[in-house]
């Protein structure tokens, strides 16, 4: 899930290092959803190559089954810079869906309490916690370029091999399930390409496009966001006046921000189209868009600022109790530039030109343009699909501004051509991250899917 702002670190959790041993969570009484959980830190190879003895730490949190144990499920967060804390607020939801399964939530290599690309600057004890402070960027860059072999080991494939090791080592007996969201779906599919883990079922939430899909890769994110935003407005336009549609009103407003300095001075400094793009992520903010457009047309700004405040509050509060919440920007940039940006030659100027007339934008294309961090070479798994898959449910929203429904469908069609055990459900009007933002639909779909798996 893309963060609007850096998540606040509210307090520091005393953290003890262990090697493949479970320990009780030290402050469980302060955060109800992790009460009674345990964590493990274990060693894994930096590179899964014979003769390479370098290791990293991997962090896993375990939530024991609430009823008689019959197996385990692994929850794989998005990112690639997100730690497992992005899924902690949903633990009760998954415990209700899978009461007989132990729940495991790992931190990807490079995130959370697992080993980091910049160990000093992304440490919990650094000046801004795990987030990079302004004065830490320079030393982080220096570390990366002085340790290229280390940085280039932070690949999707190595992260998938980490998962393989963890699942085989810690799952125990019984059923084995896996859930991935957003980038987590890409990581799960890379794991399945390896063919080293036996799973009973997989749930892929907000499936990313195939890596070679040039329409929906990350460099096209603003075009994707704009397409979804227009589709959302058309739901209102089709029911109203054709001469004064919300789409046309927003076009005039966006144009006015560039020609009317007095009007623009009353708006936030951030590009208004980017703000509208961010509103698409949250259902509560998205439903305010028609009113905001009508208010801005009449020079009223309160609804805009109120919605921005809502968005900031959500992302500030979500998982804010955890000091390991901060996204790893170095990991995100390394993986994105190496595998998920199909137009690495694009400049920031070209990004601006391409998105000049869009009504809804994403900040991502500009952030990933002109990458200055190290990259690794793509391997044989890039752009491929697994030869075999467990029984799998793919679930996507029809108004997902990050993993577009058409990109998900294309990917599903390729997967289902080779694997008849794959099914696809689309949730009308849902955004990205169905488990979080459309929980009732998610529960219904997953319950029906699990019944079929077990029958």
Q: Any idea of the CATH topology of the domain at 23-215 and 382-454?
A: Rossmann fold
Strand order of the largest sheet: 1-2-3-5-4-7-8-9-10
Largest sheet, in brief, is: 9 strands, mixed
Low-confidence stretches: 1-29
Tally of alpha and pi helices: 18
* Bulk shape: globular
**CATH C-level class of the domain at 23-215 and 382-454:** Alpha Beta
Range of helix content: 25-40%
Cα-to-Cα separation, first versus last residue:
33 Å
How are helices and strands ordered from N to C? Answer: EEEEHEEHHHEHEHHHHHHHHHHEHEHH
What is the CATH superfamily label of the domain at 23-215 and 382-454?
A: Alpha/Beta hydrolase fold, catalytic domain
Computed CA radius of gyration, to the nearest angstrom:
22 Å
Per DSSP E runs of 2 or more residues, the count of β-strands stands at 10
Strand content: 5-15%
What is the CATH architecture annotation of the domain at 23-215 and 382-454? 3-Layer(aba) Sandwich
GO cellular component, one term: membrane
Signal peptide: 1-20
InterPro entries: AB_hydrolase_1, AB_hydrolase_fold, AB_hydrolase_sf
GO molecular function: hydrolase activity
